[in-house]
């Protein structure tokens, strides 16, 4: 077995058998589309269209609001119905651009780059920035910022994160099987920016078919290698992935670039390939719709702005009434209150379960078993940090490295007392970050 892994972590039931053999199926939206202007970390985009305006597929409808920001593009042609606050996945009302789909899918003209080597580094970064590409693994950090470190010559590894360690998710798996050349092509684009870097495609060893396929495709590529990782959650978390691949450690106060690394998700690599070689901006993504309460679990290619409810309908609807619906994976995803909210750049999955076992748990007192410490990839003591958080003891929380928590959920999963450790720590981390920002 491979030794490429990290300390801690666990291996929950992955549930991937429900959708991993379902090929990507493209669907077209039926009703209105909703485009939040904040689909990324950083400043929200600024709307540049008005009510009543006709737009084309691929037309910019909101420009970047600063360097750490990303533009938003229409994924259909139609009429701007409104620019107004709408409820989004988080439950907040955010500024959104509403487009009434005319179902014609008329497009703007796109300018492809036929010769990658003819592009300068700055031109590549500008194209990625102008295409609205952000980290599509969940964080949503603008990709052009990540690809612009202060000292690019010190970047020695460009890692494409194909671990897909979250249970149930299979969108990256299908990408690797069906469109591996695009992942490799996106990596080649990124390598053009870093003269001293080697490209690594990192895949968990439960996806041996993908490992074999991509290894064969890159066997003549001297700067690209495929690395097999031990199947373990959260193997795909940035800090854990960097350590597993390079044995270089980073903490919460560091960036991957401080360890000479740049990390991008598989879907992000495909988006980079697409914008360079076809000229198309980020307008769609792959979303897994699965769970025991979904009639026909499927991987969909979805246009951004489409409502989650349309994906559920395309997957045959719910089996009965689900007790729990989640956007994202079961370990780090967000519980959904409504499916009439839009797919955005960071939407990876919709999971529906007939039973909500977690809601039935009755937390009890800590029994000091130490299991949370054993599985914690951040090498902290979750039970103690949760106590500090529950008592509002910010000083002790920070002193005991509470900010090193990556909010992976391993401690809550393993706790025999069923304590909501991750939730308590996550809430305190938000308070600390807000306090630091204010001061």
User: Helix proportion of residues, in percent?
Assistant: 25-40%
Strand content: 15-25%
Per the CATH scheme, the topology name of the domain at 112-277 is: Rossmann fold
Which structural class should the secondary elements be placed in?
Answer: alpha/beta
Taking the alpha carbons of the first and last residues, their distance comes to 48 Å
* Strand elements, count: 17
Query: What would CATH call the class of the domain at 112-277?
Result: Alpha Beta
What best-fitting shape do the alpha-carbon axes yield? globular
Count the DSSP helices: 13
C-alpha-based Rg, rounded:
21 Å
The CATH architecture designation of the domain at 112-277 is 3-Layer(aba) Sandwich
Major sheet summary line:
6 strands, mixed
Superfamily (CATH H level) name of the domain at 112-277: NADH-ubiquinone oxidoreductase 51kDa subunit
SSE string, helices as H and strands as E: EEEEEEEEHHEHHEHEHEHEEHEEEHHHHH
What does this structure look like?
Strand 10 (198-204), helix 5 and strand 11 form a beta-alpha-beta unit. The chain is built from 13 helices and 17 strands. The radius of gyration is 21 Å and the shape is globular. Helix 4 packs across helix 7 (266-277) and helix 10 packs across helix 13 (421-438). The model has no long low-confidence stretch (mean pLDDT 95). Helices cover 26% and strands 19% of the residues. Strands 1-14-13-17-15-16 form a six-stranded mixed sheet. A four-stranded antiparallel sheet has the order 2-8-7-4, with no helix packed on it. Among the domains are: 112-277, NADH-ubiquinone oxidoreductase 51kDa subunit (Rossmann fold), CATH 3.40.50; 371-438, no CATH class.
């Amino acid at each position: 077995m491979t030794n490429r892994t990290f300390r801690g972590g666990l291996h929950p039931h992955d549930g991937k058998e429900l959708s991993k053999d379902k090929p990507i199926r493209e669907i077209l939206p039926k009703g209105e589309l909703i485009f939040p202007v904040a689909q990324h970390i950083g400043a929200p985009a600024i709307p540049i269209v008005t009510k009543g305006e006709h737009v084309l597929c691929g037309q910019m409808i909101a420009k970047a609001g600063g360097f750490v920001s990303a533009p938003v593009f229409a994924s259909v042609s139609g009429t701007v119905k409104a620019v107004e606050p709408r409820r989004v996945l988080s439950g907040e009302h955010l500024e959104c651009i509403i487009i009434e789909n005319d179902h014609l899918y008329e497009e703007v003209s796109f300018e492809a780059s036929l010769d990658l080597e003819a592009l300068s580094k700055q031109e590549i970064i500008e194209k990625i920035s102008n295409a609205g590409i952000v980290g599509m693994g969940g964080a949503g950090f603008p990709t052009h910022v990540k690809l612009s470190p202060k000292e690019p010559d010190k970047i020695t590894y460009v890692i494409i994160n194909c671990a897909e360690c979250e249970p149930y998710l299979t969108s990256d798996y299908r990408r690797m099987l069906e469109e591996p050349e695009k992942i490799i092509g996106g990596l080649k684009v990124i390598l053009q920016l870093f003269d001293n870097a080697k490209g690594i495609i990192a895949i968990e060893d439960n996806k041996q078919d993908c490992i074999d396929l991509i290894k064969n495709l890159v066997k003549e590529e001297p700067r690209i290698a495929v690395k097999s990782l031990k199947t373990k959650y959260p193997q795909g978390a940035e800090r854990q992935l960097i350590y597993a691949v390079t044995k270089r450690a980073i903490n919460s106060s560091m960036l991957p670039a401080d360890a000479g690394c740049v990390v991008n998700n598989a879907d992000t690599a495909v988006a980079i390939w697409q914008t360079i070689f076809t000229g198309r901006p980020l307008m769609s993504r792959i979303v897994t719709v699965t769970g025991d309460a979904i009639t026909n679990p499927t991987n969909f290619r979805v246009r951004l702005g489409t409502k989650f409810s349309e994906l559920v309908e395309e997957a045959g609807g719910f089996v009965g009434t689900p007790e729990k619906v989640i956007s994202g994976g079961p370990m780090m995803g967000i519980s959904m209150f409504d499916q009439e909210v839009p797919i955005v750049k960071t939407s990876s999955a919709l999971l529906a379960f007939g039973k909500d076992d977690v809601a039935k748990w009755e937390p009890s007192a800590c029994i000091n078993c130490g299991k949370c410490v054993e599985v914690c990839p951040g090498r902290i003591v979750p039970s103690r940090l949760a106590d500090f958080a529950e008592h509002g003891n910010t000083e002790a929380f920070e002193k005991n490295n509470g900010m090193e928590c990556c909010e992976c959920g391993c401690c809550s999963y393993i706790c025999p007392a069923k304590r909501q450790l991750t939730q308590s720590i996550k809430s305190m981390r938000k308070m600390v970050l807000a306090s630091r920002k204010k001061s």
